[in-house]
Design a protein that fits this description.
By secondary structure, the chain is mainly alpha-helical. Helices cover about 85% and strands about 0% of the residues.
């Protein structure tokens, strides 16, 4: 248990540092040194590669996590299993590459008037897809060996730091924009090489050409699991990434609009960090409760997780919303990116909806009804693409944001309904209602706060007042028993130190 707690702590620290670096890159360095259409093109290439990699790896990353423990007791057997996975992944990528080139013209046509510009970068996108596929598989292998901190550091901090340096060098005219994109791909290659060297140095990776010989029945089982995982992962990433790609494809000045849209979306991602951190621990506890068939404990965790992540996430949402004008005012080319103001708020609402409905997706995945989650995702792809197709031409980037909030609301309602029917449990408590009421009150009071000329000072004083007021109201209302317990423990520690 000690290694899990220690690595969870460092993973959380790394995630927060990574978010800060991401904010520096996307809210300052990129707008300062790149044109909006260049940012949009960069994000389109990256998002396309992330989406393509979900299909190119053919669900094998989840297969590593699922089946590697069966062979890890024998080091040679474990290595042969990983060799088999990588052979299968290269085969899957070859098939993907053939499909990619056969559908090349369709991909270009999908982006409409922006397709001609993107055509010059399609091969680069394919290379990035390959590298991301290998990184995903290697990270899964690393996690299967309980080596979590280093791959997280490389992904969250290493890559973002390298990308920040690359854009600075571009600003210094050390290379042109196309070279900048090529070097961005090389930063991912460097990430992969460092991870491989690390795994080799700790004795986890032993390079050889031996491949595990599996019985036919076992091999078929692994392939079936991989296909099922491919459907789930591919569907989820399609829902996550399709909006930005369709903004590039369907809106006028698509790459510029995508720069504005993806920057706004990233600004809202800070809201969901507590959800990720809390779920790291909760998922393990829920899995154990299901193992014991203890639905009372599952429901208790369902309710506690929901109110706790909602209480913390709502505070971050209030902070982002209240300071949005100041953030844009200090951001390079802020007048241009200010067009994404409403997108930040709408996507923030998406994050709050996700938190309000609690870990319903995790409950499904960890229960015997795991198949329903994937089935629901497949339905949501159709809904998401359809909504984006109709709303983006009519409402631009706000249309993409509206499509996202409608998609996630329907998705959560479907999951909530299924969980309630099958398991007879639901996540809502009086504490959730209190948090929502307090949030509404605080955002209304924010409108009465005077604005300061200095944006930095305005952010500081506004954030302080909102945080103190919100925190006092949440604690006084006893919205969350866990938050009150932590507060009381904190007071006790302060009193003991004071004495």
């Amino acid at each position: 248990m000690g290694i899990v707690i220690r690595q969870s702590f460092w993973t959380s620290v790394i995630s927060y540092i990574g978010v800060v670096l991401g904010y520096v890159n996307l809210l300052y360095l990129y707008p300062r040194f790149l044109d909006p259409d260049q940012i949009g093109l960069l994000r389109t290439v990256q998002d396309a590669a992330i989406l393509f990699a979900a299909f190119a790896q053919a669900g094998l990353s989840q297969t590593i996590v699922r089946y590697f423990p069966q062979y890890s007791k024998d080091r040679d057997e474990g290595q042969k299993f990983i060799n088999l996975i990588f052979v299968l992944s290269f085969g899957a990528f070859i098939l993907f590459g053939i499909a990619f080139f056969l559908l090349k013209n369709n991909i270009i046509d999908f982006f409409g008037e922006n397709g001609n510009q993107l055509e010059n970068y399609l091969v680069l996108t394919l290379w990035l897809t390959l590298i991301m596929t290998l990184i995903t598989l290697t990270e899964s292998y690393s996690r299967a060996n309980l080596k979590v901190t280093t791959p997280n550091f490389l992904r969250e901090i290493g890559l973002r730091a390298m990308q920040g340096v690359l854009v600075l060098c571009y600003f210094l005219d050390l290379y042109d924009f196309y070279s900048f994109l090529i070097l961005t791909v090389f930063s991912y290659i460097l990430n992969l090489l460092i991870l491989l060297v690390y795994l080799k140095s700790v004795g986890t990776l032993k390079l050889n050409l031996s491949i595990l010989q599996l019985p036919k029945k076992k091999f078929q089982e692994i392939i079936q699991f991989s296909v099922f995982s491919l459907a789930g992962t591919g569907a989820l990433l399609t829902i996550i990434k399709i909006d930005s790609l369709m903004v590039s494809a369907l809106s006028t000045n698509g790459f510029v609009n995508n720069a504005i849209y993806t920057t706004a979306v990233y600004m809202a991602t800070v809201i969901e960090i507590p959800r990720r951190a809390i779920n790291q621990t909760t998922n393990t506890l829920i899995a154990r409760a299901f193992e014991k068939n203890d639905l009372t404990e599952v429901e208790a965790l369902y309710k506690k997780t929901t109110v706790n992540q909602l209480a913390i996430g709502a505070l971050l949402f209030l902070g982002v919303w209240a300071n949005l004008e100041s953030i844009y005012s200090i951001m390079p080319k802020g007048d241009t990116f200010m067009a994404g103001y409403s997108v930040v708020i709408i996507i923030g609402v998406v994050k709050i909806i996700d938190m309000l409905f609690g870990p319903n997706g995790e409950l499904l995945v960890l229960s015997k009804y795991y198949w329903f989650h994937t089935s629901a995702l497949m339905v949501m792809i159709v809904i998401s693409i359809s909504l984006n197709y109709f709303l983006i031409p009519e409402y631009g980037i706000e249309g993409a944001a509206y499509a996202t909030v409608i998609t996630y609301l329907i998705f959560n309602l479907i999951k909530f309904t299924f969980v309630y029917i099958k398991l007879k449990i639901q996540p809502f408590t009086l504490g959730c209602l209190k948090v929502l009421a307090i949030s509404a009150l605080v955002i209304l009071l924010n409108n009465w706060l005077p604005s300061l000329e200095n944006s930095y000072l305005d952010i500081l004083y506004r954030s302080t007042i909102i945080s103190v007021l919100y925190g006092v109201l949440v604690i006084m209302s006893r919205s969350s028993a866990e938050i009150n317990t932590l507060f009381e423990k904190g007071l006790s520690m302060i009193k003991s130190l004071w004495k």
